[in-house]
Amino acid sequence: MPTVTFIGHAGVSVHARAFHLLADPWLAPTGAFIGAWHQYPRNDHLDVDRLLAADWVAVSHEHLDHFDPWVIGRLPRRTRILIPRYPGPAFRERMAEAAGSRQVIEIEPWEKFPLDNRGSWITVIPELSPMCHDAAFLIVADGRGFLHCNDARLTAAQARRAKHLAGGRLDLMALQTSGASWHPICYEYPAEEMAKVSMDKRVSKLRAAQRLVRQTQPELAVPFAGPPCFLDGEVDRLNWVLGQRDGAFCDPEVSTEWLREHLPRQRWECFKPGDTVDLDTGEIVRDPVSAEFSFADDERPAYLKQYAEDRKELIEGVLAEYPEPGPDLFARFTAHFEHLGSLSDYFLRQIAMLVRFEITGPNGGVWDVDFSPEGLTVGEASPDARPHYRITTAGRWLDSVLTGRMAWEDLLISFRLSLYRDPDVYNDYLVGLLKHANAPALNAVEAYETGRDESERITVEWAGGCYDIPRYCPHAGEDLSVGAVIRDGQVHCLAHNFAFDLATGSCVNARAANLTSRRVS
Protein backbone atom coordinates (compact mmCIF):
# COMPACT_ATOMS: atom_id res chain seq x y z
CA MET A 1 0.00 0.00 0.00
CA PRO A 2 -0.41 2.30 -1.88
CA THR A 3 -0.94 0.50 -5.20
CA VAL A 4 -1.40 1.69 -8.77
CA THR A 5 -3.38 -0.45 -11.21
CA PHE A 6 -3.09 0.36 -14.90
CA ILE A 7 -6.54 0.12 -16.48
CA GLY A 8 -5.68 0.74 -20.13
CA HIS A 9 -4.47 3.69 -22.21
CA ALA A 10 -3.73 6.54 -19.72
CA GLY A 11 -6.10 5.25 -17.06
CA VAL A 12 -4.90 4.31 -13.59
CA SER A 13 -6.56 3.32 -10.32
CA VAL A 14 -4.75 4.47 -7.17
CA HIS A 15 -5.61 2.71 -3.89
CA ALA A 16 -4.31 4.35 -0.73
CA ARG A 17 -5.15 3.70 2.92
CA ALA A 18 -7.92 6.30 3.04
CA PHE A 19 -9.06 6.80 -0.56
CA HIS A 20 -9.48 5.34 -4.05
CA LEU A 21 -8.70 7.63 -7.01
CA LEU A 22 -9.11 7.09 -10.74
CA ALA A 23 -7.13 9.19 -13.21
CA ASP A 24 -8.13 9.51 -16.87
CA PRO A 25 -10.20 6.31 -17.01
CA TRP A 26 -11.31 5.37 -20.55
CA LEU A 27 -13.60 2.36 -20.37
CA ALA A 28 -16.47 3.07 -22.80
CA PRO A 29 -17.30 -0.02 -24.90
CA THR A 30 -18.13 2.34 -27.77
CA GLY A 31 -14.56 3.67 -27.87
CA ALA A 32 -14.10 7.39 -28.48
CA PHE A 33 -14.13 10.04 -31.22
CA ILE A 34 -17.23 8.93 -33.13
CA GLY A 35 -16.42 5.30 -32.40
CA ALA A 36 -13.11 5.53 -34.27
CA TRP A 37 -10.69 4.90 -31.39
CA HIS A 38 -10.72 1.77 -29.25
CA GLN A 39 -8.65 0.71 -26.27
CA TYR A 40 -5.60 -1.34 -27.28
CA PRO A 41 -5.29 -3.80 -25.76
CA ARG A 42 -8.93 -4.08 -24.83
CA ASN A 43 -9.82 -3.55 -21.18
CA ASP A 44 -13.43 -4.71 -21.11
CA HIS A 45 -12.57 -7.70 -18.90
CA LEU A 46 -11.94 -5.40 -15.93
CA ASP A 47 -14.47 -5.17 -13.07
CA VAL A 48 -16.04 -1.82 -13.97
CA ASP A 49 -18.31 -1.64 -10.90
CA ARG A 50 -15.33 -2.06 -8.59
CA LEU A 51 -13.26 0.48 -10.51
CA LEU A 52 -15.97 3.12 -10.51
CA ALA A 53 -16.50 2.89 -6.73
CA ALA A 54 -14.00 5.73 -6.37
CA ASP A 55 -13.76 8.64 -3.96
CA TRP A 56 -12.04 10.82 -6.55
CA VAL A 57 -11.80 10.88 -10.34
CA ALA A 58 -9.14 13.14 -11.85
CA VAL A 59 -9.42 13.99 -15.56
CA SER A 60 -6.55 15.85 -17.18
CA HIS A 61 -8.15 17.33 -20.31
CA GLU A 62 -11.10 17.09 -22.64
CA HIS A 63 -9.84 14.58 -25.20
CA LEU A 64 -12.34 11.75 -25.16
CA ASP A 65 -9.75 9.02 -24.56
CA HIS A 66 -9.16 10.74 -21.19
CA PHE A 67 -12.48 12.44 -20.49
CA ASP A 68 -14.93 9.57 -20.91
CA PRO A 69 -18.58 10.68 -20.46
CA TRP A 70 -19.59 7.00 -20.30
CA VAL A 71 -17.49 6.67 -17.14
CA ILE A 72 -18.50 10.01 -15.63
CA GLY A 73 -22.19 9.22 -15.99
CA ARG A 74 -21.79 5.92 -14.10
CA LEU A 75 -19.88 7.23 -11.09
CA PRO A 76 -21.49 7.16 -7.63
CA ARG A 77 -23.04 10.51 -6.68
CA ARG A 78 -20.53 10.82 -3.84
CA THR A 79 -17.52 10.72 -6.20
CA ARG A 80 -15.82 14.09 -6.58
CA ILE A 81 -14.30 15.00 -9.94
CA LEU A 82 -11.02 16.90 -10.15
CA ILE A 83 -9.95 18.84 -13.26
CA PRO A 84 -7.26 21.44 -14.01
CA ARG A 85 -8.28 25.08 -14.20
CA TYR A 86 -7.59 26.18 -17.78
CA PRO A 87 -7.87 29.72 -19.21
CA GLY A 88 -10.99 28.90 -21.22
CA PRO A 89 -14.33 27.48 -20.08
CA ALA A 90 -14.76 24.64 -22.59
CA PHE A 91 -13.49 21.70 -20.51
CA ARG A 92 -15.23 22.88 -17.36
CA GLU A 93 -18.53 23.21 -19.20
CA ARG A 94 -18.27 19.81 -20.90
CA MET A 95 -17.39 18.12 -17.62
CA ALA A 96 -20.22 19.84 -15.74
CA GLU A 97 -22.71 18.62 -18.33
CA ALA A 98 -21.45 15.03 -18.07
CA ALA A 99 -21.19 15.10 -14.26
CA GLY A 100 -24.76 16.17 -13.56
CA SER A 101 -25.15 16.61 -9.80
CA ARG A 102 -21.67 15.29 -9.00
CA GLN A 103 -19.24 17.85 -7.60
CA VAL A 104 -16.61 19.13 -10.05
CA ILE A 105 -13.56 20.85 -8.53
CA GLU A 106 -11.05 22.86 -10.54
CA ILE A 107 -7.46 22.77 -9.25
CA GLU A 108 -5.07 25.65 -9.84
CA PRO A 109 -1.64 24.81 -11.32
CA TRP A 110 0.76 23.53 -8.64
CA GLU A 111 -1.90 23.83 -5.91
CA LYS A 112 -1.68 20.94 -3.41
CA PHE A 113 -5.23 19.63 -3.16
CA PRO A 114 -5.74 17.27 -0.18
CA LEU A 115 -7.11 13.77 -0.87
CA ASP A 116 -7.37 12.65 2.77
CA ASN A 117 -6.46 13.84 6.26
CA ARG A 118 -3.22 11.82 6.27
CA GLY A 119 -1.13 14.13 4.09
CA SER A 120 -1.96 12.72 0.64
CA TRP A 121 -2.57 15.24 -2.12
CA ILE A 122 -2.76 15.87 -5.86
CA THR A 123 -1.74 18.79 -8.03
CA VAL A 124 -1.96 19.63 -11.74
CA ILE A 125 0.95 20.68 -13.94
CA PRO A 126 -0.27 22.24 -17.19
CA GLU A 127 1.87 22.74 -20.27
CA LEU A 128 3.52 26.16 -20.18
CA SER A 129 1.80 27.53 -23.26
CA PRO A 130 -1.96 28.04 -22.89
CA MET A 131 -2.25 26.99 -26.53
CA CYS A 132 -2.18 23.42 -25.17
CA HIS A 133 -4.80 22.54 -22.57
CA ASP A 134 -3.03 19.43 -21.30
CA ALA A 135 -1.82 18.79 -17.76
CA ALA A 136 0.04 16.16 -15.78
CA PHE A 137 -1.04 14.97 -12.34
CA LEU A 138 1.39 14.73 -9.45
CA ILE A 139 -0.11 12.47 -6.79
CA VAL A 140 1.39 11.86 -3.37
CA ALA A 141 -0.42 8.91 -1.78
CA ASP A 142 0.63 7.70 1.68
CA GLY A 143 3.99 9.38 1.16
CA ARG A 144 4.69 7.89 -2.30
CA GLY A 145 5.09 10.17 -5.32
CA PHE A 146 3.49 9.35 -8.70
CA LEU A 147 3.89 11.66 -11.72
CA HIS A 148 1.12 10.82 -14.18
CA CYS A 149 2.12 12.71 -17.33
CA ASN A 150 -0.70 11.51 -19.66
CA ASP A 151 -0.57 13.70 -22.82
CA ALA A 152 1.18 16.70 -21.24
CA ARG A 153 4.54 17.58 -22.73
CA LEU A 154 6.24 18.83 -19.62
CA THR A 155 9.47 20.78 -19.74
CA ALA A 156 12.50 19.43 -17.94
CA ALA A 157 12.17 22.24 -15.38
CA GLN A 158 8.55 21.28 -14.67
CA ALA A 159 9.48 17.63 -14.20
CA ARG A 160 12.31 18.52 -11.82
CA ARG A 161 9.99 20.80 -9.86
CA ALA A 162 7.46 17.98 -9.59
CA LYS A 163 10.11 15.69 -8.13
CA HIS A 164 11.15 18.35 -5.62
CA LEU A 165 7.51 18.94 -4.62
CA ALA A 166 7.07 15.21 -4.02
CA GLY A 167 9.90 15.25 -1.50
CA GLY A 168 12.82 14.65 -3.84
CA ARG A 169 11.69 11.21 -5.01
CA LEU A 170 9.29 9.93 -7.65
CA ASP A 171 8.31 6.32 -7.00
CA LEU A 172 6.49 6.07 -10.33
CA MET A 173 6.49 8.15 -13.50
CA ALA A 174 4.19 7.28 -16.39
CA LEU A 175 4.77 8.94 -19.76
CA GLN A 176 2.94 8.97 -23.06
CA THR A 177 5.16 7.66 -25.86
CA SER A 178 2.69 7.04 -28.69
CA GLY A 179 1.66 10.56 -29.72
CA ALA A 180 -1.51 9.50 -31.57
CA SER A 181 -2.32 12.67 -33.54
CA TRP A 182 -3.78 13.32 -36.98
CA HIS A 183 -0.35 14.21 -38.34
CA PRO A 184 0.95 12.51 -40.37
CA ILE A 185 -1.56 9.69 -40.79
CA CYS A 186 -4.48 11.80 -42.08
CA TYR A 187 -2.30 13.73 -44.54
CA GLU A 188 -2.02 12.99 -48.24
CA TYR A 189 1.68 12.12 -48.29
CA PRO A 190 3.40 9.82 -50.79
CA ALA A 191 4.28 6.49 -49.17
CA GLU A 192 8.00 7.24 -48.85
CA GLU A 193 7.41 10.63 -47.23
CA MET A 194 4.74 9.20 -44.93
CA ALA A 195 7.22 6.60 -43.71
CA LYS A 196 9.92 9.21 -43.07
CA VAL A 197 7.64 11.67 -41.25
CA SER A 198 6.17 8.84 -39.16
CA MET A 199 9.57 7.60 -38.07
CA ASP A 200 10.80 11.12 -37.30
CA LYS A 201 7.82 11.76 -35.03
CA ARG A 202 8.16 8.36 -33.39
CA VAL A 203 11.81 8.89 -32.52
CA SER A 204 11.18 12.47 -31.40
CA LYS A 205 8.52 11.27 -28.96
CA LEU A 206 10.83 8.65 -27.50
CA ARG A 207 13.67 11.14 -27.14
CA ALA A 208 11.37 13.53 -25.29
CA ALA A 209 10.44 10.76 -22.83
CA GLN A 210 14.10 9.82 -22.44
CA ARG A 211 14.99 13.43 -21.66
CA LEU A 212 12.33 13.81 -18.94
CA VAL A 213 13.24 10.55 -17.26
CA ARG A 214 16.94 11.38 -17.34
CA GLN A 215 16.13 14.66 -15.59
CA THR A 216 13.96 13.09 -12.85
CA GLN A 217 15.37 9.56 -12.35
CA PRO A 218 12.17 7.99 -10.98
CA GLU A 219 12.30 4.67 -9.15
CA LEU A 220 10.14 3.19 -11.92
CA ALA A 221 9.35 4.66 -15.34
CA VAL A 222 6.42 3.40 -17.43
CA PRO A 223 5.53 4.18 -21.09
CA PHE A 224 1.74 4.28 -21.43
CA ALA A 225 -1.26 6.25 -22.84
CA GLY A 226 -1.72 4.62 -26.20
CA PRO A 227 -1.80 3.87 -28.96
CA PRO A 228 -5.45 3.14 -29.81
CA CYS A 229 -6.64 0.81 -32.54
CA PHE A 230 -9.29 1.28 -35.24
CA LEU A 231 -12.10 -1.18 -35.84
CA ASP A 232 -14.67 0.03 -38.40
CA GLY A 233 -14.37 0.10 -42.15
CA GLU A 234 -13.77 3.82 -42.53
CA VAL A 235 -10.67 3.91 -40.32
CA ASP A 236 -9.36 0.34 -39.91
CA ARG A 237 -6.89 0.95 -42.77
CA LEU A 238 -5.00 3.11 -40.27
CA ASN A 239 -3.92 0.15 -38.15
CA TRP A 240 -0.63 0.17 -40.06
CA VAL A 241 0.44 2.79 -37.51
CA LEU A 242 0.66 -0.02 -34.91
CA GLY A 243 3.51 -1.78 -36.71
CA GLN A 244 6.25 -2.47 -34.21
CA ARG A 245 9.11 -1.81 -36.62
CA ASP A 246 7.91 1.14 -38.70
CA GLY A 247 4.46 2.21 -37.46
CA ALA A 248 3.82 5.86 -36.64
CA PHE A 249 2.81 5.08 -33.05
CA CYS A 250 4.91 3.20 -30.51
CA ASP A 251 3.22 0.57 -28.38
CA PRO A 252 4.41 0.28 -24.75
CA GLU A 253 6.52 -2.81 -25.44
CA VAL A 254 8.47 -1.14 -28.24
CA SER A 255 8.82 2.04 -26.20
CA THR A 256 10.10 0.13 -23.19
CA GLU A 257 12.68 -1.73 -25.28
CA TRP A 258 13.95 1.48 -26.90
CA LEU A 259 14.12 3.38 -23.61
CA ARG A 260 15.87 0.52 -21.80
CA GLU A 261 18.52 0.55 -24.50
CA HIS A 262 19.04 4.31 -24.25
CA LEU A 263 18.79 4.60 -20.44
CA PRO A 264 20.00 1.17 -19.28
CA ARG A 265 20.44 2.13 -15.60
CA GLN A 266 16.83 3.25 -15.29
CA ARG A 267 14.17 0.72 -14.25
CA TRP A 268 11.47 0.44 -16.93
CA GLU A 269 8.33 -1.68 -17.00
CA CYS A 270 5.50 -2.22 -19.47
CA PHE A 271 2.00 -2.58 -18.03
CA LYS A 272 -1.25 -3.87 -19.52
CA PRO A 273 -4.84 -3.44 -18.28
CA GLY A 274 -5.23 -4.90 -14.80
CA ASP A 275 -1.51 -4.98 -13.92
CA THR A 276 -0.75 -3.58 -10.45
CA VAL A 277 2.40 -2.20 -8.82
CA ASP A 278 2.87 -1.71 -5.07
CA LEU A 279 4.64 1.62 -4.54
CA ASP A 280 6.05 0.54 -1.17
CA THR A 281 7.69 -2.68 -2.31
CA GLY A 282 7.89 -2.32 -6.09
CA GLU A 283 6.18 -5.71 -6.44
CA ILE A 284 4.17 -6.19 -9.64
CA VAL A 285 1.12 -8.41 -10.03
CA ARG A 286 0.16 -9.19 -13.63
CA ASP A 287 -3.43 -9.45 -14.82
CA PRO A 288 -4.01 -13.02 -16.09
CA VAL A 289 -6.28 -11.95 -18.99
CA SER A 290 -3.95 -9.21 -20.24
CA ALA A 291 -1.00 -11.58 -19.89
CA GLU A 292 -2.40 -13.52 -22.86
CA PHE A 293 -2.23 -10.42 -25.10
CA SER A 294 0.72 -9.68 -27.35
CA PHE A 295 1.54 -6.51 -29.32
CA ALA A 296 3.42 -8.64 -31.86
CA ASP A 297 2.73 -7.80 -35.51
CA ASP A 298 1.86 -11.37 -36.53
CA GLU A 299 -0.84 -11.68 -33.84
CA ARG A 300 -2.50 -8.32 -34.45
CA PRO A 301 -4.72 -9.09 -37.51
CA ALA A 302 -6.60 -11.94 -35.84
CA TYR A 303 -6.90 -10.00 -32.59
CA LEU A 304 -8.33 -6.90 -34.30
CA LYS A 305 -10.68 -8.99 -36.45
CA GLN A 306 -12.25 -10.55 -33.37
CA TYR A 307 -12.29 -7.22 -31.54
CA ALA A 308 -14.08 -5.55 -34.46
CA GLU A 309 -16.65 -8.33 -34.62
CA ASP A 310 -17.32 -8.04 -30.89
CA ARG A 311 -17.91 -4.29 -31.14
CA LYS A 312 -19.59 -4.15 -34.53
CA GLU A 313 -23.11 -3.45 -33.26
CA LEU A 314 -21.88 -0.89 -30.73
CA ILE A 315 -19.96 1.01 -33.43
CA GLU A 316 -22.91 0.87 -35.81
CA GLY A 317 -25.06 2.32 -33.04
CA VAL A 318 -22.66 5.23 -32.58
CA LEU A 319 -22.50 6.01 -36.29
CA ALA A 320 -26.30 5.88 -36.60
CA GLU A 321 -26.52 8.78 -34.15
CA TYR A 322 -25.04 11.12 -36.78
CA PRO A 323 -27.67 11.86 -39.47
CA GLU A 324 -26.97 13.56 -42.77
CA PRO A 325 -27.21 17.37 -42.59
CA GLY A 326 -30.01 19.48 -44.01
CA PRO A 327 -29.85 22.01 -46.88
CA ASP A 328 -28.85 24.83 -44.51
CA LEU A 329 -25.40 23.31 -43.90
CA PHE A 330 -23.49 25.99 -45.81
CA ALA A 331 -25.39 28.82 -44.11
CA ARG A 332 -24.56 27.38 -40.68
CA PHE A 333 -20.95 26.76 -41.77
CA THR A 334 -20.67 30.42 -42.76
CA ALA A 335 -22.15 31.67 -39.49
CA HIS A 336 -19.85 29.39 -37.52
CA PHE A 337 -16.68 30.69 -39.13
CA GLU A 338 -17.80 34.31 -39.04
CA HIS A 339 -18.15 33.86 -35.28
CA LEU A 340 -14.69 32.28 -35.02
CA GLY A 341 -13.24 35.15 -37.04
CA SER A 342 -14.61 37.67 -34.55
CA LEU A 343 -12.85 36.13 -31.54
CA SER A 344 -9.21 37.19 -31.99
CA ASP A 345 -7.49 39.57 -34.40
CA TYR A 346 -4.18 38.18 -33.12
CA PHE A 347 -5.03 34.67 -34.31
CA LEU A 348 -6.21 35.94 -37.71
CA ARG A 349 -2.86 37.70 -38.19
CA GLN A 350 -0.96 34.54 -37.28
CA ILE A 351 -3.07 32.21 -39.44
CA ALA A 352 -3.13 34.41 -42.59
CA MET A 353 -4.06 31.62 -44.99
CA LEU A 354 -6.82 30.27 -47.21
CA VAL A 355 -8.37 27.01 -46.00
CA ARG A 356 -10.52 24.91 -48.32
CA PHE A 357 -13.19 22.59 -46.95
CA GLU A 358 -14.33 19.75 -49.20
CA ILE A 359 -17.52 18.48 -47.60
CA THR A 360 -18.79 15.19 -48.99
CA GLY A 361 -22.28 13.69 -48.92
CA PRO A 362 -25.75 15.29 -49.07
CA ASN A 363 -25.77 19.12 -49.01
CA GLY A 364 -21.99 19.28 -49.05
CA GLY A 365 -19.79 21.39 -51.28
CA VAL A 366 -16.39 22.96 -51.65
CA TRP A 367 -16.02 26.09 -49.54
CA ASP A 368 -13.16 28.48 -48.83
CA VAL A 369 -12.44 30.25 -45.57
CA ASP A 370 -9.95 33.12 -45.93
CA PHE A 371 -8.29 33.80 -42.57
CA SER A 372 -6.98 37.23 -43.49
CA PRO A 373 -5.49 39.80 -41.08
CA GLU A 374 -8.07 42.21 -42.51
CA GLY A 375 -10.92 39.90 -41.52
CA LEU A 376 -12.33 36.43 -42.18
CA THR A 377 -14.49 35.70 -45.22
CA VAL A 378 -16.37 32.58 -46.29
CA GLY A 379 -17.52 31.65 -49.78
CA GLU A 380 -17.87 29.01 -52.45
CA ALA A 381 -14.46 27.82 -53.62
CA SER A 382 -12.98 29.73 -56.53
CA PRO A 383 -11.04 27.78 -59.18
CA ASP A 384 -8.58 30.67 -59.31
CA ALA A 385 -7.78 30.54 -55.59
CA ARG A 386 -4.88 28.45 -54.28
CA PRO A 387 -5.62 27.10 -50.80
CA HIS A 388 -2.80 26.62 -48.33
CA TYR A 389 -4.71 23.97 -46.43
CA ARG A 390 -7.44 21.50 -47.40
CA ILE A 391 -9.76 19.60 -45.08
CA THR A 392 -11.97 16.87 -46.55
CA THR A 393 -14.68 15.27 -44.41
CA ALA A 394 -18.29 14.10 -44.51
CA GLY A 395 -21.13 16.53 -44.00
CA ARG A 396 -22.55 14.61 -41.06
CA TRP A 397 -19.28 14.95 -39.14
CA LEU A 398 -19.12 18.67 -39.91
CA ASP A 399 -22.76 19.05 -38.86
CA SER A 400 -21.99 17.69 -35.38
CA VAL A 401 -19.31 20.38 -34.97
CA LEU A 402 -21.66 23.14 -36.09
CA THR A 403 -24.36 22.01 -33.67
CA GLY A 404 -21.86 21.92 -30.80
CA ARG A 405 -22.20 18.19 -30.30
CA MET A 406 -18.45 17.77 -30.68
CA ALA A 407 -15.45 20.06 -30.92
CA TRP A 408 -13.25 20.55 -33.97
CA GLU A 409 -10.42 18.76 -32.21
CA ASP A 410 -12.68 15.74 -31.61
CA LEU A 411 -13.25 15.55 -35.37
CA LEU A 412 -9.55 15.92 -36.14
CA ILE A 413 -8.61 13.20 -33.66
CA SER A 414 -11.34 10.89 -35.00
CA PHE A 415 -9.25 10.59 -38.18
CA ARG A 416 -12.53 10.59 -40.15
CA LEU A 417 -11.09 13.16 -42.54
CA SER A 418 -8.14 13.76 -44.83
CA LEU A 419 -5.80 16.74 -44.84
CA TYR A 420 -3.39 18.46 -47.19
CA ARG A 421 -1.19 21.52 -46.79
CA ASP A 422 1.03 23.43 -49.21
CA PRO A 423 3.60 24.39 -48.11
CA ASP A 424 3.91 21.51 -45.64
CA VAL A 425 4.21 23.77 -42.59
CA TYR A 426 2.19 23.28 -39.42
CA ASN A 427 0.00 26.25 -38.42
CA ASP A 428 -0.54 25.98 -34.67
CA TYR A 429 -2.81 29.03 -34.73
CA LEU A 430 -5.31 27.51 -37.14
CA VAL A 431 -5.59 24.42 -34.95
CA GLY A 432 -5.69 26.62 -31.84
CA LEU A 433 -8.56 28.74 -33.11
CA LEU A 434 -10.57 25.69 -34.10
CA LYS A 435 -10.00 23.73 -30.90
CA HIS A 436 -10.43 26.57 -28.39
CA ALA A 437 -13.13 28.60 -30.15
CA ASN A 438 -13.58 30.95 -27.19
CA ALA A 439 -12.15 34.40 -26.50
CA PRO A 440 -10.71 33.79 -22.98
CA ALA A 441 -8.55 30.89 -24.17
CA LEU A 442 -7.37 32.78 -27.25
CA ASN A 443 -6.61 35.91 -25.24
CA ALA A 444 -4.52 33.84 -22.83
CA VAL A 445 -2.39 32.59 -25.75
CA GLU A 446 -1.89 36.13 -27.04
CA ALA A 447 -0.88 37.38 -23.58
CA TYR A 448 1.57 34.51 -23.16
CA GLU A 449 3.20 34.94 -26.55
CA THR A 450 3.44 38.73 -26.52
CA GLY A 451 4.65 38.90 -22.91
CA ARG A 452 7.58 36.48 -23.10
CA ASP A 453 10.90 37.51 -21.58
CA GLU A 454 13.76 36.49 -23.90
CA SER A 455 16.51 38.13 -21.86
CA GLU A 456 17.91 34.81 -20.61
CA ARG A 457 20.02 33.43 -23.44
CA ILE A 458 22.45 30.60 -24.11
CA THR A 459 25.16 29.84 -26.65
CA VAL A 460 25.09 26.81 -28.94
CA GLU A 461 27.61 25.58 -31.49
CA TRP A 462 27.24 24.32 -35.03
CA ALA A 463 29.81 23.75 -37.78
CA GLY A 464 32.50 25.74 -36.00
CA GLY A 465 30.26 28.72 -35.26
CA CYS A 466 28.71 29.93 -32.01
CA TYR A 467 25.14 31.20 -31.92
CA ASP A 468 23.30 33.22 -29.30
CA ILE A 469 19.71 32.00 -28.81
CA PRO A 470 17.03 32.44 -26.13
CA ARG A 471 17.10 29.75 -23.46
CA TYR A 472 13.39 29.07 -23.85
CA CYS A 473 11.63 28.02 -27.04
CA PRO A 474 9.47 30.82 -28.52
CA HIS A 475 6.71 28.33 -29.24
CA ALA A 476 5.86 26.82 -25.85
CA GLY A 477 8.65 27.62 -23.42
CA GLU A 478 10.77 24.46 -23.48
CA ASP A 479 14.21 24.88 -21.90
CA LEU A 480 16.44 24.58 -24.97
CA SER A 481 19.56 24.13 -22.84
CA VAL A 482 18.39 20.58 -22.06
CA GLY A 483 15.41 20.06 -24.37
CA ALA A 484 16.87 20.55 -27.83
CA VAL A 485 19.32 19.06 -30.28
CA ILE A 486 21.37 20.89 -32.91
CA ARG A 487 21.66 19.27 -36.32
CA ASP A 488 21.82 20.40 -39.95
CA GLY A 489 22.15 24.01 -38.85
CA GLN A 490 18.86 23.92 -36.97
CA VAL A 491 17.68 23.94 -33.35
CA HIS A 492 15.20 21.08 -32.91
CA CYS A 493 13.01 21.57 -29.84
CA LEU A 494 12.13 18.14 -28.46
CA ALA A 495 8.92 19.24 -26.75
CA HIS A 496 6.81 19.76 -29.89
CA ASN A 497 9.36 18.99 -32.64
CA PHE A 498 9.58 22.61 -33.89
CA ALA A 499 12.79 23.33 -35.82
CA PHE A 500 14.45 26.76 -36.12
CA ASP A 501 17.14 27.81 -38.59
CA LEU A 502 20.18 29.09 -36.68
CA ALA A 503 21.19 31.55 -39.40
CA THR A 504 17.81 33.31 -39.70
CA GLY A 505 15.87 32.26 -36.58
CA SER A 506 12.89 31.24 -38.73
CA CYS A 507 10.83 28.19 -37.83
CA VAL A 508 11.15 25.86 -40.81
CA ASN A 509 8.32 23.41 -40.14
CA ALA A 510 5.62 25.43 -38.37
CA ARG A 511 4.17 28.92 -37.97
CA ALA A 512 5.96 30.28 -34.90
CA ALA A 513 7.74 33.37 -33.62
CA ASN A 514 11.34 33.91 -34.71
CA LEU A 515 14.03 32.35 -32.53
CA THR A 516 16.00 35.65 -32.65
CA SER A 517 19.24 33.73 -33.04
CA ARG A 518 22.47 35.44 -34.06
CA ARG A 519 25.97 34.25 -34.80
CA VAL A 520 28.51 35.57 -32.30
CA SER A 521 31.70 33.89 -33.56
Radius of gyration: 23 Å
Shape: globular
Strand order of the largest sheet: 7-6-5-3-2-1-15-16
Number of helices: 13
Low-confidence stretches: none
Oligomer: single chain
User: For the residues shown, what is the average pLDDT?
Assistant: 96
Pfam family, one: Rieske
Protein name: MBL fold metallo-hydrolase
Keywords: 2Fe-2S, Iron, Iron-sulfur, Metal-binding
InterPro entries: RibonucZ/Hydroxyglut_hydro, Rieske_2Fe-2S, Rieske_2Fe-2S_sf, UPF0173_UPF0282_UlaG_hydrolase
Structural notes for this entry:
It comes from Actinomadura nitritigenes. The chain is α+β, with helices and mostly antiparallel strands and 521 residues long. The chain has helices spanning 48-52, 69-72, 90-99, 156-165, 191-216, 252-262, 300-320, 329-341, 345-351, 395-402, 408-414, 428-436, 439-450, and strands at 3-8, 11-15, 20-23, 37-38, 56-58, 80-84, 104-107, 113-114, 121-126, 135-141, 144-148, 172-176, 221-224, 229-230, 276-278, 284-285, 353-360, 365-372, 375-380, 389-394, 417-421, 457-462, 465-470, 484-487, 490-493, 499-501, 518-519. The strands form six sheets. It has an eight-stranded mixed β-sheet, with helices on one face. Strands 8-9-10-11-12-13 form a six-stranded mixed β-sheet. Helix 4 packs parallel to helix 5 and helix 8 (329-341) crosses helix 10. The longest helix is centred in the middle third of the chain and has 26 residues, at 191-216.
